[in-house]
Amino acid sequence: MSGADVILEIKGLKTHFFTRRGVVKAVDGVDFSLRRGEVMGLVGESGAGKSITGFSILRLIDEPGRIVDGEVIFEGRDLLTVPEAEMRRLRGDRLAMVFQDPQTSLDPVFTVGSQIVESLVFHQSLSPSQAGSRAAELLRAVGIPDAEKRLAAYPHQFSGGMRQRVVVAIAMAQNPALLVADEPTTALDVTIQAQVLTLMRRLVRNHGTAMILITHNMALVGQFCDSIAVMYAGQLIEHGTKEKVIRDPQHPYTQGLIRSIPGRQERCRRLDQIPGMMPNLIDLPPGCPFRPRCPSAGGDCVQRPLLRPVGLDHQAACWRRNRP
């Protein structure tokens, strides 16, 4: 991966929540990089730290949460040191996010058109008429029929899939360099999921946008992403190309996730499940956080493993796979 291709580099990112019960280490030392035009799937169980990682990149962490360490290098600048006023201009312009629920992403008291126009006027300084024409173009681009008429409609007059298309249109309005999509299809049925993800992939490909797709669905990232990063208990435990991670998973947790995917040719096979539950992020076990659930844990697992190469374009944090 050449330095010129890298648009985002995360180094030692730590985001903690300071509660009365203790410090929740939601993101605890995450490192990865992303190339221009690359679609990376960030996967793991609920509570693994996926969404907090995405929010941390855009600096959308509220109290009692705080980014306590690390760097978020975007286009050569550390976003964690950028003044808040400049961050507000970067969000929605060079950086964009699609949130999980389109119902809450759009303001119910304003028309869809006014919400798109507001973004265009703020970031591109267009006149209202110019922004209106551009808004109609964006709705057509995401497959909404009668775009000019639908600009005057309110969010409740759209289906869930159409609302998510509107959210995607707003996110892509400025041709962002980086798009973070946080569970963008969770509230949609399977058919609409595929349509929205295909649309998003086409848009990012057309504009050279890098995308992080946050999801718990391993089959989904295997279909739509170029690379996969697996999170567990706030840590990155495997990262590599889609082919390497899906076909040759090196971490026991990744192996368990893949074994739990239903297969067309294995209708009689009972699906495997990973025993136990993710540990309490306030009181993590020493060493590898997956150790209490790992079928191959050993004595050296009481020390925290680092993410190390296990092959070309493939890394894993497991003492069983990458002994020094």
Q: Can you walk me through this structure?
A:
With 324 residues, this protein is α/β, with parallel strands linked by helices. It has two domains: 6-94 and 177-316, P-loop containing nucleotide triphosphate hydrolases (Rossmann fold, 3-Layer(aba) Sandwich); 103-173, no CATH class. Helix content is 31%, strand content 24%. It has eleven helices and twelve strands. The protein has helices spanning 50-57, 84-90, 102-105, 112-124, 128-141, 147-150, 160-172, 190-207, 218-224, 242-247, 252-259; strands spanning 6-18, 23-35, 39-43, 65-74, 77-78, 95-98, 178-182, 210-214, 227-232, 235-241, 308-311, 314-316. It has an eight-stranded mixed sheet with strand order 6-7-8-3-9-10-12-11, sandwiched between helices. It has a four-stranded antiparallel sheet with strand order 2-1-4-5, with helices on one face. A hairpin with a 2-residue loop joins strand 9 and strand 10. Helix 4 packs across helix 5 (128-141) and helix 7 runs parallel beside helix 8 (190-207). The radius of gyration is 21 Å and the shape is globular. It starts with 5 loop residues before the first strand and ends in an 8-residue tail after the last strand.
Task: Describe the protein's topology.
Elements: E1 6-18, E2 23-35, E3 39-43, H1 50-57, E4 65-74, E5 77-78, H2 84-90, E6 95-98, H3 102-105, H4 112-124, H5 128-141, H6 147-150, H7 160-172, E7 178-182, H8 190-207, E8 210-214, H9 218-224, E9 227-232, E10 235-241, H10 242-247, H11 252-259, E11 308-311, E12 314-316
Parallel strand pairs: 3-8, 3-9, 6-7, 7-8
Antiparallel strand pairs: 1-2, 1-4, 4-5, 9-10, 10-12, 11-12
